[in-house]
Design brief:
With about 200 residues, this protein is an alpha+beta fold. The chain has a single domain, classed as NADH Oxidase (3-Layer(aba) Sandwich), CATH 3.40.109. The protein is about 45% helix and about 10% strand. It has 9 helices and 4 strands; from the N terminus they run E-H-H-H-H-H-E-H-E-H-H-E-H. Strands 1-2-4-3 form a 4-stranded antiparallel beta sheet, sandwiched between helices. Helix 1 crosses helix 7, helix 1 packs antiparallel against helix 8 and helix 7 crosses helix 8. The longest helix has 20 residues.
Length: about 200
């Protein structure tokens, strides 16, 4: 496996635009937001119990957003779907373009070694100052196209960015220096992962 850095502004901007389009496709596909919502921990009790997934306090949101949102922590998963979410995705500014993508040769992102490599790259970079963040919507939608037999809209677009048919995208990410302080998220110990078998 390797890392393909998106160094040129045109290709970085192209991937940023594709990411916005992938988010729109994601929220329009009802099954995907509902599956993703299973990883959201809406209450402090859930955060302490599971010690994984996403939670409101770890999103680096401004206080004026975090405080009102904390009143709606138990939003049903079905609320995350539909045209309203798609409209919000279209109304926001495009994300900052990704810095690079991890590629795995001859394998999908699920069967390749990229996830294990990311688990090492992420803490290594974080302890040295930069803040890496997955920006994985395009590869996820490309996999969904294969799963459902859809036209390879995102699969074709990311293949053009890679420029080598022998390599498959495993994980896209962006890398930069944080401008706000985010409290650490609780995580399970290695022993706890080995004991309960949840990766």
């Amino acid at each position: 496996m390797g890392i393909r850095w998106l160094a040129g502004e045109p290709e970085r901007r192209r991937f940023g635009d594709l990411t916005v389009q992938a988010v729109e496709a994601f929220v329009a596909d009802r099954a995907q937001p509902e599956a993703a919502f299973a990883w959201y921990r809406p209450t402090r009790q859930d955060v302490d119990r599971f010690r994984d997934g996403l939670h409101l306090d770890g999103q680096a949101l401004p206080p004026l957003t975090t405080v009102p949102a904390s009143c709606c922590r138990r939003r049903p998963a079905s609320r995350a779907t539909g045209t309203g979410s798609g409209a919000r995705a279209r109304s926001t500014s495009p994300p900052r373009p990704p810095s690079g993508c991890c590629w795995s040769a001859g394998a999908t992102r699920r069967t390749g070694c990229a996830p294990a490599a990311w688990q090492r790259l992420h803490p290594w970079a974080t302890t040295r100052g930069p803040a890496p963040q997955p920006l994985d919507q395009v590869p996820i939608r490309a996999e969904r196209e294969v799963e459902l037999g859809l036209a390879p809209r995102f699969g074709r677009a990311q293949a053009e960015l890679i420029g080598d048919a022998a390599w498959h995208p495993a994980l896209a990410f962006r890398l930069g220096y944080p401008t706000v302080r985010v409290p650490p998220s609780p995580r399970r110990s290695v022993l706890a992962v080995l004991e309960d078998g949840r990766a």
